Amino acid sequence: MTFTLRALLGACAVGALAAAASAETTITVATVNNGDMIRMQGLMDDFYAKHPDIKVEWVTLEENELRQRVTTDIATKGGQFDVLTIGTYEVPIWGKQGWLIGLNDLPAEYDVDDLLPAIRGGLTVDGTLYAAPFYGESSMVMYRKDLMEAAGMTMPDAPTWDDIKAAAAAMTDKSKEQYGICLRGKAGWGENMAFLTAMSNSFGAKWFDMDWKPQFDQQPWKDTLTFYLDLMNNYGPPGASNNGFNENLALFQQGKCGMWIDATVAASFVTNPKDSTVADKVGFALAPDKGLGKRGNWLWAWSLAIPAGSQKVDAAKAFIDWATNKDYLALVASKEGWANVPPGTRTSLYENPEYAKIPFAKMTLDSINAADPNNPTVDKVPYVGVQFVAIPEFQGIGTAVGQQFSAVLAGQTSLDDALAAAQQLTLREMTKAGYIK
User: Could you tell me the pTM of the whole model?
Assistant: First the structure.
């Protein structure tokens, strides 16, 4: 009898829990396994205090796996996720396809006009914001102030490519394994081609003309690659065709690079005395230009978006609002300090006097503002994207072209042959995809 009563009471309790649970909305958030996103998961008590009726389930993945999973899910309308973490590459493509929910109706206090114009522009299609930026970055010059001083030189805040070459020559001492410049050489659309595409913009090059015809057979691409190879062969480290972001970061932290042109997010790593032997000797400058009106810097943001297949749009918007608004930045600052606030998204962050004390804050902002995803090149082009072309085919084409250019750096093929191969393969794929009639 007692057992039966307990069982009945237990059943009632379970029923009550089920009723409470049904009043809750559970959303699934797919995100990338990096420090900022892991930190956000540790601050969820603040979200739950504000939204007790919403529960968040996390799917946290490595970058490549995340891209694969969310791309498959959104293309097949799988409906696994209510919030996606995606990059500046995906947003314009997916927004145009109608695969994302617009965010123009976020609350007024979200202050969408506070978003940095360059970052906001890369996440907007035909006037509709399709993703809210969690953090943003550009690229810039990181350099050794002590080596510049020893060479009797000063790095301008806004250097030209000729300034970079002169500094690289002055700082190179191969007998000490001291190389004037470290740049990406590892093949990949997000590795060497991120750097080379951004660099080529400043040389007047472009991936495609207004008819989508590839432009690797034009002089500006040859000029870009010739200059890059001259820098790397004369003043770069050996084996540079294998070096991507992580390899160059290690070389710089070990004191083997006079300069490194790469992601602004690296600034906190190279100035961290726990990891960097040159932490107190690093200066920052804008990515170089060639006097044609465009700098050789890129633009990226990890952002939160809602797939069109979500059945829980209101709850998903509430989460995105919380994770990317000004209050969240203040929350991180109160718990972790201003240096750990997600960078590169809001004007108000860079107007904050506490944040302005961080040595790389201003140069990061200036670098982001120097990039224009809607007008990335000197000449008019039919695409958006600074270090990439926002079309679905770019991942494959960009990596194939990157392999050609990495092979030149490795001495396995000639510059002319690599450019001819890049032109041919890009023309073939763009014709097959229907861009070229």
Answer: 0.84
